Amino acid sequence: MELTARKKEILKVVTERYIDAAEPVGSKYIAQAMGGSVSSATIRNELADLVEMGYLEQPHTSAGRIPSPKGYRLYVNELMERRQVSDQEAAEINSALQGKMQELDSVIAQAGQMVSSIVNYPAYAVAAGKSSVTVRRYDLLPVDASSFIAVVMTDDSRVKSQLLRTELPVEAEQLPALANLLNTHFTGIHTEELGSKLMALAPQLGAELFMPLSQTIEFATAVIDSSQRSHVFTTGQSQILRQPEFQDLTKADGLMSLLTDQKAELPVLDENTPMKILIGPENVNEALKDASVVVASYDIGDNMRGLIGVVGPTRMDYATVAARLSYFAESLTKMFGKNHQLPPKEDDIP
Amino acid sequence: MELTARKKEILKVVTERYIDAAEPVGSKYIAQAMGGSVSSATIRNELADLVEMGYLEQPHTSAGRIPSPKGYRLYVNELMERRQVSDQEAAEINSALQGKMQELDSVIAQAGQMVSSIVNYPAYAVAAGKSSVTVRRYDLLPVDASSFIAVVMTDDSRVKSQLLRTELPVEAEQLPALANLLNTHFTGIHTEELGSKLMALAPQLGAELFMPLSQTIEFATAVIDSSQRSHVFTTGQSQILRQPEFQDLTKADGLMSLLTDQKAELPVLDENTPMKILIGPENVNEALKDASVVVASYDIGDNMRGLIGVVGPTRMDYATVAARLSYFAESLTKMFGKNHQLPPKEDDIP
DNA sequence: CTTTAGCACTCCTTTCCCCCGAGTGCTAAA
DNA sequence: TTTAGCACTCGGGGGAAAGGAGTGCTAAAG
């Protein structure tokens, strides 16, 4: 059977109406919405076809129709009018982004919050880690006899520091030599090698040098780890309780757990994809089978990307969410790009 | 009317039964639970008294009784058997705490997670900030012509660092002098004074010195701010959906919002109080009026305290939660105390 | 071949009612 | 003061019935 223009129009009307009202849509409404050019009986014939073709579903015999995931997919791909954010929305987004230039993770988390409040669904923001981070440089600063500060700068320009306590006293004079050792042997290499290289060097060093060296390496490893790990921030979880489809506690529970305790399971985006819409069963995660996700990415700099996603019912307002989300992502890209350097990055501990 | 021993026993039976079953408790059950020494009719007389005295409530005329907040309060204060954590529980807690010695905020957030999974209620953890933090020391490290690293150490022994980009080139040779300036004029003073002092010094400095100075001060201000701000971490929110009393969506929604988007509203503990139980209407926050909170504090060192709280229905199992929470808090205090110094603290960005 | 009016039919939802039973409150006796 | 006895209350469960939105089919019209 062929998907005529009229069938598509009907599908569009059904989808948009269902997005709005969360109730099955009847033939009479559709006929009216289409300007009354055809009767409801004609519509009913078409509806039967659309059900047969798998674009619509019927909760029960005498109910109206709702879009199936396949129907949503077609709607999103072809039928949906790509909305533009209004000037007012754009102004709101821009003003919200103003002066928010803080540490990286904080900006990212706040972006999530803003998106959630803009679209009225829960949102999540991922600070994607670079795949392989190495240390570019070490500095050691004397504090007192039993402690010093280690400063580690990574090749993605993050700088982290920590106060380290030593068991044996360390002479302030030894620190430059130690730093020199670190900078010659322990820069530009991956985590695993750090340990082995340390072991290789161990015999040549006395305990009073080895200990602070190993502490610094341990710290550097932690820095790299946290730099590589993606942190996920979520907000607006309570929004899902306000959606009629999640009045059913079991569904809400699954989603809620996902959004609070299993954030890492939330869908991400492979490189080069600016935005993606995942509808119901298209999601891999079980808890998301009854939900949809819109996720977009933005550039941060130094080959790094941020991710921002919105979780809602399959019935979610894709046009609006997609428009706002992509505008938002673009704004973030611009914002990070403007200071054509990296933004002043700060340590990122979740 | 007097609160006889038997009345108290009845109140205890009712409370514990209700905690367990979440259903109103009838006179027959109580008579049986008390060993059958008295008849249900006698119990009914007593129950009527207890209702009159405000310790119990009756959902409707022909239903059993449930404890009122006042009843819970008496139960918690007097009747509840202070539970000890079992050896097994203690072992679990201890093993969970092993090797978790990471950065401060991370430890604290994890503590919240552990508590939540131990008690099966949502939990929150607060990293309480010190009231007035000042910078103890500055270091400036050269990077290249247009950037340098600022390292700031606060008087609560946190060390933070950031890469700062300058607009005008900075000579590496100027940095020590600049650091010296900072260390003489900008240590040990509060945030507000930092700015004014900077202004006072401005006329004496050229732009190529003033800019990096002011950037460093700005960074120091941010460090102090984030050090003073309390960060709240929450987990296990989805647990509340599993409580029968929160099947009512509106109540669940309020609590959920509180636990996800208004964390700052969660009750804290004034100094010197090791643990507190807040029952239903005793809570100030509207969303918590139908819930109870058990919150405990532990010592971190340097006069700092951490807070850990559990949110549940008023019917929550106070004895178990309180026992586990206080054991947990004590364990944390011990853990932080063991390294009688501060644990290696790391930068804490939420 | 498509569209349309007409109409019987389906099935969900709401409402009402009735009954059941747990539990009470009261009375009167032990 | 305690207890047995008993009438009474009230919420909850289970149909049955009414209501209504919407369908599917048929037959006629375009």
Offer a quick outline of the entry:
Two copies of one chain form a homodimer. Chain A is of the alpha+beta class and 350 residues long.
Question: Which features does this protein show?
Answer:
350 residues; homodimer; 5-stranded antiparallel beta sheet; elongated; 3-stranded antiparallel beta sheet; 11 helices; alpha+beta; DNA-binding; 44% helix; disordered C terminus
User: In order across it, which strands form the biggest sheet of chain A?
Assistant: 7-3-10-9-8
Helices of chain A, by number, come to 11
Structural class of chain A: alpha+beta
Q: What's the oligomerization state?
A: homodimer
Largest sheet, strands/sense/barrel of chain A: 5 strands, antiparallel
**Estimated helix fraction of chain A:** 40-55%
Largest interface summary: A-B, 47 and 46 residues
Mean pLDDT of chain A: 88
| Percent of residues in beta strands of chain A | 15-25%
Strands, helices and their partners?
The structure is a homodimer of 350-residue chains.
Chain A: H1 5-21, H2 27-33, H3 40-53, E1 56-57, E2 66-67, H4 69-79, H5 87-97, H6 104-119, E3 123-127, E4 135-144, E5 147-154, E6 159-165, H7 174-185, H8 191-201, H9 207-228, E7 231-235, H10 249-260, E8 275-279, E9 291-301, E10 304-313, H11 318-338
Antiparallel strand pairs in A: 1-2, 3-7, 3-10, 4-5, 5-6, 8-9, 9-10
The structure holds a DNA duplex (30 and 30 nucleotides).
